[in-house]
Design goal:
The chain is 35% helix and 23% strand. It has 11 helices and 17 strands. Helix 6 links the parallel strand 13 and strand 14. The chain is globular and about 70 Å long. It starts with a strand and ends in a 7-residue tail after the last strand. The protein binds iron/sulfur cluster (SF4). Residues 159, 161-164, 167, 169-170, 209, 243-244, 269, 283 line the site of iron/sulfur cluster.
Amino acid sequence: MVHQGFWNHQSLTISVKGNCLTISLGSREVFSYDLAGRLWTALVDEISYRRGLDGKIVAKWQTGEKTRQRRWLTPPESADLIERGHALLCKLTSDLRSQKIVLNPPLNDKGWRDLQTAAAFDNTAAEADALGYFRVYKPIGILPPDQYISVVLQATEGCSFNTCTFCDFYRDRPFRIKRVDEFREHIRAVKAFLGEGLSLRRTIFLGDANALVIPMPRLISLMEVIHEELDVEKLGGIFAFLDGFSGERKTPQDFSRLAELGLKRIYIGMESGHEPLLKFLRKPGTPQDVLQAVRNIKAGGVAVGIIVLLGAGGETYAQAHIQDTIRLINAMPLDMEDLIYFSELVENENLPYVQTAYQNSLQPLSAEKRIQQGEAIENNLVFGKKGTPHISRYDIREFVY
Ligand code: SF4
């Protein structure tokens, strides 16, 4: 329900929804909270903010028609933003109580409850919340952009390969599959941590890097536990990464069984269709393995999200990367249920990629050329009668859970 009024000579809107509470003051200040009262998003003076469950806050703003800037707030900046929201909501609650503001329609019991819960989110609560996250999760390395608002359940920890030179998401942990009882305990801990905030979450994401390498009997047991603990249908189904293609390969029948258990989409870090580039990146599997996996997944009735790495291999591999990636994607039976993400290589100096690129005298692609590489691939993709997948950018530096 939307409640409107005036406050301090500005329009005031309080939106009380089934999954969040949003307070808008004029057009320059907006704070949204989940129903456990955690700050979720904010907009202050044309800068938008998003707080992750780990307590980190990313700020984004436009500097031109197409240029978007982003940076992570420092702890004092985060504290200032949380305090700003807290002070605003405390004053708002007090002025509503003393009837200095007339809302149309007036707040009902739920509205009051949600407002008071959100108003209690000060820096002490935020710190306790972030500590709760680290008790429940091994830090979540990455998610596909359409899954930032999922409930992550870590059925596995880490990556079963951990060889790719451009990826350091899981270097801090060995790969392991959780026992059924341990996974159930984890799900219960996640539910307790999210509390009423669970209502904000739109899907379930099975972590970490490639939970779907779990052999079928074990995977089915783990997915059954999810159904026992959560309403999978209501939460929009289950999503996961599949990366690298050694070990147990799943058949169309396996994927069909997983679809029955609520699996909706599998994200594949394909990176490139050019095999020598995959080898250079130390990415396990071949383009043919990826193609076969996509065919099996689609035949089993599950959608895919294909991730292509722009800029990988620099100038040396640029042309072959474009051509073989076009060829590989065009051979896939993709349709309108599927996604294609173009993700730019992020070269931070701790990555082995940077070392090997230097040793091989690779000339990196400029930012502009990376964009052109994405366009060159996209412009040559051809899809069948079942429709075109949604194609978009994936900037891993913006990841927030
Ligand atoms: S398989 Fe995926 S998660 Fe594992 S190291 Fe490679 S890119 Fe990273």
